[in-house]
Amino acid sequence: MNTKSNSTPKLYSFWRSSAAFRVRIALNLKGISYNIIPVHLTKNGGAQFDPDYSEKNPTHLVPLFEDGAASIHQSLAIIEYLEETHPIPPLLPSSPIDRAWVRSLAMDIASDIHPINNVRVLRYLLKNLGCSNESKDIWYQHWIQLGLNSLEKQLSTDSRVGRFAYGDQPGLVEICLVPQLFNALSSGMDLSPYPTLVKILRECLKLPTFIDASWEKQIDAEGSNPSIPPQE
Q1: Residues 165, 173: contact at Cβ < 8 Å?
Q2: Smallest Cα–Cα separation from 63: which of 19, 122, 93?
Q3: Do you find a cis peptide bond into 93, omega within 30 degrees of 0?
Q4: What was the pLDDT predicted at 1?
Q5: What is the C-alpha to C-alpha distance for residues 15 and 118, in angstroms, rounded to an integer?
Q6: Residues 125 and 116 sit within 8 Å (Cβ to Cβ)
């Protein structure tokens, strides 16, 4: 059944959500117009728990993407949907092995790094386990550092890397990498051990598709983008 509509898609988003940030980048890269519906994840206990939103998305997370009657949660599922319904420009390489490589890097971030340092996990450490802010920050940076160490090693030695992770056009890796590096920078992490990742970040932030998806450009923004390390 075709559930698509000619109406403008809606993206339920929070300005600092890494997962929503990914989808905003993907929509911009695809040139798809969309309306942002803000969902504040921290104010008054979190709008993601409001009955209306809970009915739409029982996971109580963002993003949620509505395209006509179709409703999709989970950022990578939304991005795959966009890739299949709007194949130009592609977010994945044409070769099956290269597509698998790109997906593996994206999943290193979206599946291994991000889930254990997102808002609800950090909140649980503070409120339920009695961790101090200092202990929470140590936890946070530990997992990001492990992940970024692996990504830097992979991308600094692979011949497929160009201006971006795969050649000279941004795609799925950058969609996942840029939000994660924003998180790292906002926590005060030193990114000097990751010159390849920072180079890619700088290249991305030259593009309106990434700039317009960034924190400070959102209608619900409550702060600025983190400072990017100066180029050496």
Answers
A1: yes
A2: 19
A3: no
A4: 30
A5: 14
A6: no
Rounded to whole angstroms, what are the CA distances from 138 to 51, 166, 189? 35, 32, 11
- What pairing do the DSSP bridges indicate for beta strands 64-67 and 35-38? unpaired
Q: Which residues of 119-131 are buried (b: 16+ CB within 10 A; e: fewer)?
A: beebeebeeeeeb
Counting beta carbons within 10 angstroms of the beta carbon of residue 116, is it exposed (0 to 12), middle (13 to 18) or buried (19 or more)?
middle
Secondary structure class of 36 (helix, strand, coil): strand
- Kindly list the averaged pLDDT for each block of 10 residues, start to end, along the chain of length 232: 67 97 98 98 93 95 96 98 97 98 98 88 91 90 95 97 98 98 94 97 98 98 93 71
pLDDT digits (tens, 9 = 90+) for 95-139: 999 999 999 999 999 999 988 888 889 889 998 999 998 998 888
Tell me the Cα Rg of the chain: 17
Residue showing tokens 């960034």: 214
User: In sequence order, what E strands does the chain have?
Assistant: 10-13, 35-38, 64-67, 70-73
In the DSSP assignment, the letter for residue 193 is T
Answer for the pair 220, 24: CB distance below 8 angstroms, yes or no.
no
38 with 63: CB under 8 angstroms? no
User: What type of residue is 122?
Assistant: L
